[in-house]
Amino acid sequence: MTTALLHTADSLRTRARDGHRAVVMTMGALHDGHASLIRAARRIAGPQGEVVVTVFVNPLQFGAGEDLDRYPRTLDADVKIAEQAGADVVFAPGVDEVYPGGEPQVRVSAGPMGTVLEGATRPGHFDGMLTVVAKLLHLTRPDVALFGQKDAQQLALIRRMTRDLNFDVEIVGVPTVREDDGLALSSRNRYLSPEERRTALCLSRALFAGRDRHAAQEALRARAASAPATLARADALSAIGESRAAADAHAVAQSAAPSAPGGPAAVVAAARQVLDEAARLSPPLELDYVALVDPADFTEVRPGHTGDAVLAVAAKVGSTRLIDNLPLTFGAAV
Predict the structure, then answer these.
(1) Residue tagged active-site, from 34, 125, 214, 305
(2) So where does ATP get bound (predicted)?
(3) How far from chain centre, in Å, is Cα 285?
(4) pTM of this structure
(5) Are strands 320-330 and 307-317 parallel, antiparallel or unpaired?
(6) Which residues are annotated as a binding site for (R)-pantoate?
(7) In Å, how far from its chain's centre is CA 158?
(8) Residue range 43-96, pLDDT digits in tens
């Protein structure tokens, strides 16, 4: 397969088009995480469809003091990676092509959902992101667009925008790709020194600690649901043998709530303990936030929450800011 490199919307629009078109939007500096998105797009589009990868470093989503100027531009390498992963087209428009009249006066607003977590740290970021995604959806006219789950808040906002504004496109989330040591793949990882990378691993370790705590709670909840509703319940639960679970057995015995024991707060606390320890490393991890949120609106979940949630974390190591998250489900069927 030879991947076509196009720079104008007209050249993309005039291509013969058969079957479904699947689009993967990127800012370039492609890595294995992007490649997994492209491969997923290839499977969805099928042999008769078309996979388009956009490469555009969007100035609207970089705030003052952020890394727009040093953001890596590696178009030749990007085309090779896209081709190997199965892309038919790399669409790499210039700024004048995407914003022909300069910075747009009319933009998409992310609303309240865009003001929390990443939005609180990076004011205006999500307005700029949604504006360029809306424009690229119009320019590429896909049947389906794929985005990584690592940028969970971005994915949630894009889904909300396409639903609220009646975009005729299916949005698909693709699971986060991690390196062997657990670090989520990111174009910004290349900025980390070896020492900074060791500290950065605490982001994923914190998430895994929260996930383990959640799994223990869910195991206890399942046992609680099957144990007799008597004073013997605590003894039955203690027999599970997991020390943290046994410590909470009495609490589970007293409540059939799906979130018991400890609930969302205990999951966040388990993650935060790892992050607090990382703050004492050299170099230290500077925590921005760790939160357990509802993926529908990114508000923090309440005690007793059931259903899907996202455990999200953001921090700086040196001058590099990293984000990561894990999806969790509370109160799964037993």
Answers:
(1) 34
(2) 27-34, 148-151, 177, 185-188
(3) 20
(4) 0.86
(5) antiparallel
(6) 61, 154
(7) 12
(8) 999 999 999 999 999 999 887 767 777 787 899 999 999 999 999 999 999 999
